[in-house]
Amino acid sequence: MRRARTSDDIVRRPPKVAGAFVTPFPPIASSQHEEPPATPSAPRPRTVPIRVWGSSFMGYRPTTMAHGVAVALLLQSVGAAAQQLDDVQVTANRLPQSQADVLASTTIIDRAEIERSQADSVIDLLQNRAGIEITQNGAPGTTTSLFMRGTESDHTLVLVDGVRINAATSGGASLEFLPVEAIQRIEIVRGPRAAAYGADAIGGVIQIFTRRGGEGTQAALSLRAGDQHTQKQNLFVSTGDAETRLNASLFRRDGDGFNTLASDTSGERDGFQRGGGQLGLSHRFGPHASLSLNALRQDTDADYDDCFPLNATAASNDCRTDGYLQTFGGRYDLALAPDWDMAITAGHFDERREERYAGERYSVTESHRNELGIQHSFTRANGVDTLGVDYRQEHVDFDSASPFAGRYAKDSRENYGLYGMLQREYGRHELSGSLRYDDDSRFGDETTGSAGYAYHLTPAQRLGVVYSTAFKAPNLIDLYGPYGSNPDLDAETSRNLEAFWAIEHDAWNARVTAFENRIDDLIAFDPAFVPYNVDRARIRGVELSGGWHSAGLSLRASLTHQNPEDRDSGERLKRRARTFGRVDADYALGDWRYGATLRAAGDRRDTRYIAPYGDTTVGGYGIVDLRTAWQVTPQVELSAKLDNAFDRDYTLIEGYNTQGRYVEAGVKLTL
């Protein structure tokens, strides 16, 4: 198992709106604020056009516009997120849209939720949300795998400010390298999105936006300490005016961790340390053009167990990995006409991992990628059309001291992609379609597409259906890797059908999605560990998600029930639970906040790598995390959390330990 309806008379002079640039909707007479009643012959309008400076058009509900424009925090660009309204996302169709206007199943985690949760990592933020399961090989800093809607760990595309961070070698994303301290927002899109992004998005897309500042000068310093000698420091500063914004973050975390391997009885702990920084710059060149630049780097150094030093006759627990992940991105937005926007994007990604066994360097693997893209968006009276082209080049540097390791026969590849998307609204009917062609220099070409339809039962309720295809390009390690490869591999392909019902009210929302994803030509390995296309999978499931808020109470919940099945053997795919879910509850009372999170999952099939060898089953679990915070003064906040409050002993991967009860507290000073 491997690893918006728009107007032609839009005012073009952007005012200042809560730290973002917005071109206002033309003045509306008071009578225009009154919505006509919803009738079968004349359904109530759901959206009004809002012109977003430096991007495309957004669609909002009239009430959202009327109450939210004065406080809106929105995107400056797809690749560089500014603060925005909670229900606006850009990842599903590479355009800013209200979640109510997107047919895909989506989740947004904003900065306020990140801070309320006091999460240690992206893993904590994502674990057990609708459609998402994550495993980790022990203590913080060790390797993670993400399974979205039961697909493989390299079937989810992960972006940072629009830049891919899936490694060119294994195809997976190193979530353990991503710092929550530098994150403004996370957008999750479930289901295939290959027609928008090309390869790797069979299970879905996760996009992470780094932090941004607003007008004026801001600064925040956070200091925290916890069990296992854990320490955290984070500094965020920003300054800016109506035209130019600059922000920076510095962060560090280290600790003794816990013993990674369950079979290790020595009592040693696998410590870790990580640190890095993030930088963002944006500038507006008059009312029609903008430029945004961003950079992120994190260095990680972590201990782990069960490696094999050269000439050793047994496994060692003196294993260490260190390296870094860094991204650089830029976006230039230009409004060519009132209904025509162009965006030019560029990005660069590096990841480096060095493995040391018993103090000796064993291997070094580096993954590098460059990206360029041009996208045009054309606003119509009842929708938007998008045309784009992108280019991606990636290569691998590898060196190993092992006598069994070869070299990459070919260590680079290129991909050209051409895509088009359209969205239309006809009264109660909503249509969406996309088509994309990719040409990969190493395995050939692929054409993917999607089509969706939704019907508005009422202004608040929708029924819809979406069909989409996707593919996963073979990883370079499978095509030309040093330990066994097959240059004749075909792409893994999928066909996905899903249907949904969704409802959104002011205080609450809910969505039910039923899906079936059939994946062909999955890559498996023969007894000599040579990859080949043979496996087939069928993943059926139902997702339930929703939220409710009133006064100081906020509830968010999700539940996924699925059957990720190997179609040849009839067995469940390994490391996937049939049922898993999550509940987050937060309550604010005066200057105090209280919160709790329940994460639960059923049993999973796995492989036992120690005697007796073979297949096994790891049990289900239910974990409760508690948290509280006190706003002592407007500038000082004290907080504390208790993870795994009942000290449950549970397993994510057979043979590897997980975090027991953990206590942490800290102070945040804000200027």
UniProtKB/TrEMBL annotation:
The membrane topology of this protein is: Multi-pass membrane protein
Q: Locate the TonB-dependent receptor plug domain: which residues? A: 99-205
- What SUPFAM superfamilies does its record include? Porins
- Where does it live in the cell? Cell outer membrane
Per UniProt, residues of the TonB-dependent receptor-like beta-barrel domain are: 238-644
Which keywords appear in this protein's UniProt record, sorted alphabetically? Cell outer membrane, Ion transport, Membrane, Receptor, Signal, TonB box, Transmembrane, Transmembrane beta strand, Transport
The source's superkingdom equals: Bacteria
**Disordered: annotated segments:** 21-47
> Which residues are the signal sequence here?
none
Report the principal subcellular site.
Answer: membrane
Q: Name a Pfam family for this protein.
A: Plug
| PANTHER family in alphabetical order | COLICIN I RECEPTOR-RELATED, TONB-DEPENDENT OUTER MEMBRANE RECEPTOR
Q: Which family does it belong to?
A: Belongs to the TonB-dependent receptor family.
Name listed for the protein in its UniProt record: TonB-dependent receptor
* Organism for this UniProt entry: Salinicola endophyticus
